[in-house]
Structure formats: C-alpha cells, structure tokens
TrEMBL record, chains A, B:
The lineage of its organism: Bacteria, Bacillati, Bacillota, Bacilli, Bacillales. This is LLM class flavin-dependent oxidoreductase. The keyword ATP-binding does not apply. It comes from Paenibacillus arenilitoris. FMN binds at residues 59, 96, 146, 150, 221. The keyword Oxidoreductase applies. InterPro entries: Diverse_substr_monoxygenases, Luciferase-like_dom, Luciferase-like_sf, NTA_MOA. One of its GO terms (molecular function) is oxidoreductase activity, acting on paired donors, with incorporation or reduction of molecular oxygen. Keywords: Flavoprotein, FMN, Monooxygenase, Oxidoreductase. Pfam families: Bac_luciferase. Belongs to the NtaA/SnaA/DszA monooxygenase family.
Amino acid sequence: MSRSKKQLHLNLFLRNTGHHEASWRHPDSQPGGVTDIAYYVRLAQTAERGKLDSLFLADSYGLPPTMQFLVQQALEPFTLLSALAMATSRIGLIGTASTTYNEPFHIARKFVSLDHISGGRAGWNIVTSTGNATAFNFSDAPLPEHSERYRRAGEFMEVVRALWDSWEEDAVVGDKENGLYVNPAKLHEIRHAGEYFNVRGPLNLPRAPQGHPVLVQAGASDTGREFASSLAEAVFTAQNTLEDGQRFYADVKARMLKHGRSPDRMKILPGFCPVIGDTHAEAVEKERELNELTQPEYGVYRLSNLLKMDLRDYPLDGPLPYAELARNAEINSQKARHQLYLELAQRENLTIRQLILRTATSRGHYSITGTPVEIADEMERWIDAGAADGFNLMPPCFPTGLDEFVDKVVPELQNRGLFRTEYEGATLREHYGLAKPERTSGQRAVAAK
Amino acid sequence: MSRSKKQLHLNLFLRNTGHHEASWRHPDSQPGGVTDIAYYVRLAQTAERGKLDSLFLADSYGLPPTMQFLVQQALEPFTLLSALAMATSRIGLIGTASTTYNEPFHIARKFVSLDHISGGRAGWNIVTSTGNATAFNFSDAPLPEHSERYRRAGEFMEVVRALWDSWEEDAVVGDKENGLYVNPAKLHEIRHAGEYFNVRGPLNLPRAPQGHPVLVQAGASDTGREFASSLAEAVFTAQNTLEDGQRFYADVKARMLKHGRSPDRMKILPGFCPVIGDTHAEAVEKERELNELTQPEYGVYRLSNLLKMDLRDYPLDGPLPYAELARNAEINSQKARHQLYLELAQRENLTIRQLILRTATSRGHYSITGTPVEIADEMERWIDAGAADGFNLMPPCFPTGLDEFVDKVVPELQNRGLFRTEYEGATLREHYGLAKPERTSGQRAVAAK
Ligand SMILES: Cc1cc2nc3c(=O)[nH]c(=O)nc-3n(C[C@H](O)[C@H](O)[C@H](O)COP(=O)(O)O)c2cc1C
Ligand SMILES: Cc1cc2nc3c(=O)[nH]c(=O)nc-3n(C[C@H](O)[C@H](O)[C@H](O)COP(=O)(O)O)c2cc1C
C-alpha cells in the first residue's frame, strides 16, 4: 500500500431516499426519514465512518408539480447541517444557498455561524437557482435570465467575501482587566455600494475558523465555468463518460490559470452513482429491481422538463424527436444537461423509455453497476486519466447504497492507497488540502465608538 | 405541595456572557464562549435540568458601534438552535427573526425545519428590527418607519401562516405499493398577492409537528401590542414595577378579547433579572461587584442611544436633562423603553451615573437582588397579582447566574407547587399549555401534475 498515489476525495450527495428516482418505493428505503433528523444522523455517521471528506445537501425553494411520484422536499440546509454538526466530528458539511433569492449579509453570517458550530467544517454550494417554482415564492417575476443571475452572483460573492474578511483573525481581545473586548482597529466596515447590493458591514460574527467556508460550485455553461474557475474550491459536475470528464477537467483547470489561480486550489468532483453487488450479476439485478419501480408518467415529465418539450404524445418505445429537440437547445436554460441527454440517447441509440431508465439512477451523472472491485477500478481510472480529483457519491438508494459503499468500496480504495484510512485534518479545508484564504486588505476600520 | 396553584412558566433569555452589561469582565464569565457551541450546550442543558419551558435567543443584523466595551455578537439563531436541539430533548427553542429584512418563504421554512429537527420545540420571536446598523446591511435606505414595519409584519405573518398550512397534516401518504408519495389534494398553493409579497407556495416541507411553531412577540407600543394581541402566544415585556406589569397584562389580555382570542392562549412573560445570594448581603455584594466593572463611557453611550440625546456633555453625577428629553420622546422609535427609563429616574430621583448603574443589570427590565426565598416570593407575588404568567429569566452573568437559579430558586418554586418537577409534555406548545392551531381552509389544491 503506497501513499505516493494521488489521493481521491469523496463527497456524499445526500438526497432524501436516494438518487434513483424510484428509490423511495424500494423496500429498503425510508421515505418517512426525510423529515426525521435521526435518519440524517445515521447517514452522516456512516459517511464519517467511511472517512469521507464531506457530505452535501442540494436545495431549492420550490416544489416540482410531481410530488405524488417522488420524495422531493427535505429539511432546510442550515438547520439540518447545524444539527448534523453535533452528531459528527470530522466530516465536512456543504450546504446549498442561492445568490438569486437571498441577501448576502444573511448568507455570509449563517455560513460563518455553521463554521463556528462545526469547528471549521462548513462549505457552500453556490447556486443561482433554476425554475419558476422557486421564483414565484419570492415575487411575481419569473426567474431572471442566466447571465443576469450570474452577474448578481458575482457581486454577491464580492460582498460575502468582504464580510468574511471584516473581522481580522485577532480582532477579539477579551481583555477583562482593561475592559477591551474587541480591538476596533481590527473590525472593518465594507461599505459595498454596487449594482445589486448596498452593504455597510461589518459582519456581526468573528472570523470563521476556516477563514472562509469552502466555496463549491457546479456551473456547466461557459458563464458558469468562468464563475467557478474564478473562485470555487470544489466543483460538482455531471459527466457521462470518462472522455467528457477529461475535457471538462482540462477546461476548468485551464480557466483557473487565466484567473491567476493554481489548479490545485480546486477539486473537481464528477457525480458518481454506484449500484453495488457482490457479483456483477447481483448488481445488475439490483438496478433492474429499482428500474422496475419507476413510473413512466414521471419519467416522461422529467425528460420533458429537462428537454423543454412535451414528450407525452410520442411513443415511449420510439426514438426522441431529435429535429424538434435540436431547435429547442437554443432556448434551454440547462443547456449542458440537455446536451448530455441528447448525446447519450444518440450514442446508445435509445428509445424514450430506455433513456428514462438509463437516467433514472443518476439523472445524467455517471453511473456504474458492478462489484466493489469494478467500481474502485473505474474510480482509479478517472483519477489517473485526469478526469477527476474525486467524486460526488450518489448512492441510488439510502441507507443501503451508502452502507455498501462504505463497507465494501472504501476498504478497496484504501487498500489501493487511494483513500485515507483516518482523518488527518480537523477542518473541511484540511480534508480537501485547500489553503486558508488570506484576508484582503484595504477596508476601513470601524470608528472607535 | 399543592398543584392547584397557578403554574408559572420560565423562559431563559440567553445573551452572550449575561444580561449585566459588565458581565463579560466578571472573573466567572467566558467571553470566548460566545462563538463556542460547547458554551451554549452547557447553558441549554442546565436550563433543561431546571425544567424550564424554553430558551430564547435575541437577534439583530448589525453591530453597535461599541464593540470594544461589550460582547455583542452571537451565533446565528437558526444554526445555533438546530445545534442545541441535538444536545437537549425537551426544552423549547425560541429564535428571533425580523419581518423587515427577511422573505416569508425562507423564514416559514426554517422554522418548520427546526420544528421537525427538534421534535416540536420551535418558537419564533417576531420582531420588526430597530436601528440603522441593521438597515444599512441590506440597502442604503434607513430603517422604515415604525407603522410601515408593522404593516409589513402583518402581511408577512399572513403569508407565513398560509405556508405553514399549505401541507395538510396527512398529505404525506408514502404508499410504496401504488407509487403515491404525496396526496396532491392535500397540498395547497397559497397564491398570496399583497402589498409587500407575492408568494405562490406551497412550502417545500411537510407540516410542522406543532402545526405552527409557537409565536412570540414583544411589542410595547400601541401598534406593537395590537399586533401581539392578534397572534402572539407568548409575550416578552420589560416592566419596572409590579404595578406596571399589572397594567400591561390587563391591557394586552383585554386586547386579545377584541381579536376574538381567549386570554389563556397567550403567556405574558416580563423580564426578570435575579442577582442571587445565599444571604441578602451576599446578593447585594454580587451586584456591587458587577456594577464596579461597568464602564461609564459605555453607560453614557447606551443611555444616549436609548434616550436619543447625546448625554456626554452632562455631569455624570447630576440629574438627567428632563426638559430636553421630554421634547425627544416624540421622535423616539423606542418610546416605551424611553418612557420606562425616564419614569425610573424620576421616581427614584437618580443621577445619570445612578441611572446607568440601576439599568446596567437588566436594561430596564425588572431586577431583584436577594436570596432564593426572596426571589421566589417576588415571582409568586407577580403571578398572584395578575402581572405575569411566568418570566423571561435574565441572569446577570453566565454560567453562574443560571446555575444558581436552577439549583436554588427552581427547587424553591417547585416546593411551593408553582413550577413543574418534570416535563409533562414533549413540545413547546405542551410546556406552555397552548393548543395546536387548526388549519385554515379555502386554499386551492396543487394541480395533479
Ligand atoms: C451535483 C450538482 C448539484 C447541484 N445542486 C444544485 C442545487 O442544490 N440547487 C440548484 O439550484 N442548482 C444545483 N445545481 C445546478 C448548478 O448549480 C448549475 O446551475 C447547473 O449545473 C447548470 O450550470 P450553469 O449554471 O452554468 O448553467 C447542481 C448541479 C450539480 C452538477
Ligand atoms: C425581552 C425582549 C426581547 C427582544 N428581542 C428583540 C430582538 O431580538 N430583536 C429585535 O429587533 N427586537 C427585540 N425586542 C424589541 C421588541 O420586538 C419591540 O420592538 C420593542 O419592545 C418595542 O416595541 P414596539 O415594536 O411595539 O415599538 C425585544 C424586546 C424585549 C422586551
């Protein structure tokens, strides 16, 4: 067992009953768990037992109109992750928050608070929101355009990072004798006045243990990749093949150089959905079992929604209407995912029904069905080929899919010297090998009284 | 020991190092604790050992310009209370959120999430914010006028309560066999379109265990009292004398009748700040010790701020400039507290320095210095006189002031049959004896797909 091999990083993508769309119907699943903290505690503790770097909660602020088919809601990330911080001691806790439907002051503060509570384990998946189900819970205006959302995101991050730097590391003096609690020279207003935000600062919490919580992003478009390259320290991405993964990896790391950032300051983590069996046949049988529980009515909805075209009138066992779909690509807000589905269908010559099943497990993320050895092989292949720094683990079904991964695949990775056998650091930054950010200077000190 | 006596309710008002403004300088205090979750866990567990109904976190979104004199910042309420939910099992968890600088969807959801995580122990102290230190972290506009803030608060509550009712109690079916997760007929859009908010709904979380988290408010003005009477289930208030307490109690309960609410659907909890000694002399000595640690520079700032008049040029050992101050009352946004200070100074004929010390312990709340028996006597007197349903406990110094209360005053109250010796219920509603709210009807079901 050699430790000279490149170490991979593992993030657990928590998602209600699992990533397979029919997971909630599986006999092992616990749909009642999604509002039960004990359910999440069990998953988080299993992930920590497996020495995973972090766990991650996706989030949105609206419900899809398909609630009857699917467990879609979940506990709110800040509250849930703070609770999980108390039930774990090492694993990183990554929450999603949108820059489109929040105020920078609130978000900056909640992540610092979570970072204090967890002892430096907070991370933020920065998203700009998708869909009007979210938009209409905040106003009668539809979701802003893609470019507008990213412009706001850029300014949002400027404000948040300035707020995170508004307390110097040693601002708190706590000198009881002389009655000096804070050194006012080390507390700074930010006086941000921009296109979207006016924020005076300082933040009302001392600097986070990690300096800044770890910044995570999942941009797929050109704008999104630029944004991620400029600041993200971990990137989630959906890649269907190793070759696509290599192209994405090379592209984003090259963009980082353009932004003056060293490529090792970001970990790229493609989604990875393993259906695990002790034999290959057992794994295939597991996948079949899950696929049998899917509801075509929901699959057609999901596909129609993603491809922005009503597919209900097309025969399930016929091909996709490629010509019409190509025209739609222009107006599609999720262009990258759209493209990925079309390429998959064409490459494998799939009918609508087959495409639904092919993406039921992982919604366009890479999915593999096999033994622990086959799965570890594939992970190693992606790392070695420069397609990934680690993976965003998406078990098809909780809790069993996670238990199996931790009990069977993790030891295999550890035996190969690819993955830690013990946590070495205490913070999320340390797990990912990310440097603590320097404070930017040039802010004005808060006037003494 | 008779259980026929009216039971009193106790809420612990958590506040960094304690309620005395110089508490952080006391040898017993732990100013470093305010960003350390272990510090809060210890306090919460002590309060739970004392069988207190709830604990409460005040909050604002800005720092005062007096940071050097005082520990003022604290962990953020949603994250902190969710963490405390995991370290306790019975005590209620009341967080503050402002209706002026938040979106109803986010607040509705976070409280439901906290209610699920804590098993029905969430409460919300509804505030409208004060001061431009908060305002300027959200825009370049100053704090909206008092009446404007309450108008927005009214509509905010309409939206939040509709969102809380947007899932019927039995909306989640979880029928794996037939593939029906949610019954779409029991999930409702709210389609709110008002002056301040447009919110479609439904919420993206199933109904809270308590139906609605407990609503707490602390309005003191006429508008504030109207607001509280219309919906609050617990009211915090600052009352300097038992007689003032009686007047406030009678007034608010009478207003409830006007709103068609039974007076027992609200618990009135005046602030109560006990400085406890085994002998009366010891208690007095404790108070003197704390007062000696105050910093006049800060005291004058606090008074100037509250009375909206710069007092730095007036002699500390002279009287308040009553004539000038009377003129200021008109423009004062915290009129009630302002009034309370002036009355106190006049009634007791205090100099500026004496008023500073007199309010250093509890900032205008009722404060008592004495033995456990004297303190229990006073509590009983307030309850019997119809001035309170219980108290908002404000220990001058943490953790010692809380330890002493739990170890010495609580048993005294229990011996008198005034306070529970064990939790009887599981939820915050049950501790306060508040009924679970009914769902309002008349919302439209979410279209099936
Ligand atoms: C693994 C993964 C997780 C994501 N989680 C969220 C999420 O929780 N909320 C959200 O609004 N978007 C989420 N997204 C969407 C991305 O933030 C991004 O918007 C999407 O990949 C499209 O890229 P673009 O923004 O560059 O167009 C996620 C994407 C990926 C790949
Ligand atoms: C015990 C107590 C706690 C309070 N906590 C807060 C708080 O956390 N945040 C806040 O903005 N206001 C807080 N307030 C202020 C009240 O919400 C209210 O605005 C104040 O009593 C003045 O009354 P009015 O709003 O009717 O003018 C508190 C008041 C009291 C008595």
